[in-house]
User: Fold NADP oxidoreductase from Thiohalocapsa halophila.
Amino acid sequence: MGQKVRVATASLAGCFGCHMSVLDMDERILDLVERVDFDRTPLTDIKTLGPCDLGLIEGGVANAENVEVLREFRRQCKVLVAVGACAVTGGIPAMRNSVPLAEVLDEAFVHGMGLVNPGIPDDPELPLLLSQVHPIHEVVRVDYFLPGCPPSADAIWSLLTAVLEGGALHLTWAQLRYD
Ligand code: SF4
Assistant:
């Protein structure tokens, strides 16, 4: 492919572990930057999103800002990939789904152990929490799902190579085996 592929990434309700896995590609990143231009991504700290070939989303959808960012990625990216367990299923953040949100907030900010100044934060700049954490496909259409917590650098490399070369994505058993 002569023209560089434009890639954007975002972390919604995630731990940045999936982004760390991107960095784990080590020297292959040098090959990547020859073939890819990065748009909005925490890897470059670019904050605005333009039209992209590929969007990689880490994390579930836990608040109103996550919804906004995700919808913008869907509008701007030709191909959107759910990267990692949190984006694919809600993952660890979704463990709060079995508890009413009011109880979650109470435990975290009012009656939990070790709190110095109890009180639920209410700064208007804070994004409103959703009552449940959602996998991203419950909010927008998703083209591919890359499982793992996090997916390995090899699996992410395979995904990027398939997109760069316009081929089908084939993941080996080793890339999908987690025990
Ligand atoms: Fe972190 Fe795992 Fe979620 Fe990725 S899938 S954001 S590594 S918890």
